[in-house]
Design a protein that fits this description.
Layout lengths: L2 H14 L3 H15 L9 H16 L6 H8 L4
């Protein structure tokens, strides 16, 4: 498959998503991949915001224990 076909396929999959939280995370992830060469220190405000988001994720059960991560990826590395 060529790059344009891949982009179209990705776009189709994104249009199927109905959860705004997933869209936001995809957007954030995409931006982070595109900024790899533009690494700069994060602001203190961004640092605190990301800590807050992480704590919220933990409170809402959106995390994995270390043992779960090890089990999931032990055969992939």
């Amino acid at each position: 498959m060529d790059i344009n076909a891949e982009k179209i396929e990705l776009t189709k999959e994104i249009f199927k998503i109905q959860d705004i939280e997933i869209i936001s995370k995809l957007k954030k992830t995409l931006k982070s991949f595109l900024k790899v060469d533009e690494i700069s220190p994060m602001s203190l405000e961004q640092f605190y915001a990301e800590i807050g988001e992480s704590l919220s994720d933990i409170e809402e059960g959106r995390f994995m224990e270390h043992s779960e991560v090890v089990e999931r990826y032990k055969n992939k590395v």
